[in-house]
């Protein structure tokens, strides 16, 4: 509405101004505008003064004055119209006033002009009229300036309001876009909800069908499981009976094993006692050997002192030679008896081997039975490990015995060398008598010395013969020990295939044999 009113007002003013301008153009000869005349009011005063000075009363001058007055009135009317127009535009744009129709505003302006013309007509002189018009013009100028200032302020406010309006329009457009987007999203959500509902219904149907299938399958499996449980119960009952029978068998075997262990413990205790006895005998033999060494040293000194009596001793030694030969024959008979005992021991070994083969057959049968019981295998494995440890210990003992044998060999050689030296000394002392009076069976050209007589064994000076005889006993003991060690090693290789009890008994038997051999050696010494 405000825009339409402003357009109508502009049209009316433009038509009114055109009419006034056409009238002025017809009145003015030079075609000057009303604005130039309005702006040059002060110049007209200068024109009026020379007229007064001249004092001319010509009619042309009067007509010119009248035309000037008309022009002034018209110029004032145009200015007032323009100011009113500006005021109206400002009221329309800022305050949005409800204006009266443009015809009424033009009528008011014309009414003011008529009032101004009436006031001017009341004045008598044109100078007074000019002064009144100047005052009116000054007032209008001030009002015009004030209105321009107000118009600038209002234009700023208008620009701000326009910006706010644009912002509000943009926000409104954004809100509309957002609303349209939200509506589209709501529609999509509704569609999505519908699709989800349909999918949920389909899924529930499928799940119900699957549940029915699963329940039927579960029922079938339950029936199968029940049938299998019945079968397993029957099988478990039979297995329980078998387990009870096997438990009874195991108890019997355990009792037998306990009895065997008790027997083995008794045997071990007996062997320990024998070992203690053998150790005591060995200690005693060592003490005797030390005493014999000391005695040997003393007798050596005594022999050096008794070198003068060597001739008499030579005759006695000849007699002792005969006695020693008799002893040698006895020792050969003992050696043959020892060989017979060895052959008997070999026969015993063969019988023991046959028994071992029988036992291996029995063990094979037992292995078939004990295949179900792996626990026994673990115990036997532990026993084998212990046997391996025992074998390592025995190997160490065997190495120690070998060292002892080597030492005894060295001792035997040293004793033999000493015996040869003593025989040489005896021969040198006896001289040609010993050579001529030698036994019929001896060869004077041989280097082998004759053994000492047997009677000197009981005398304090018979240390050479005692050493010689002890060397023979040591050699016999060493041969026995070596044979026993070879047999022990041979039997030890077979023991790995037998049970733990047989290995213990066999090893204890070997230890007893060794101890008996050592005791025999110590007794002979």
UniProtKB/TrEMBL annotation:
Family membership: Belongs to the taxilin family.
UniProt keywords, alphabetically: Coiled coil
Spans of biased composition, class Basic residues?
Answer: 491-509
Q: Where is the composition biased (Low complexity)?
A: 436-448
Which spans of this chain does the record mark as coiled coil? Answer: 130-295
User: Locations of Basic and acidic residues compositional bias?
Assistant: 44-66
Query: What is the protein name given in its UniProt record?
Result: Taxilin alpha
Domain of life of the organism in this record? Eukaryota
Polar residues: bias regions: 29-39, 425-435, 510-525
Keyword Coiled coil on entry? yes
Q: Which GO molecular function, any one, fits this protein according to its record?
A: syntaxin binding
Instruction: Note down the stretches annotated as region Disordered.
Output: 23-72, 422-461, 489-525
- The stretch of residues making up the signal peptide is none
* Signal found in the keyword field: no
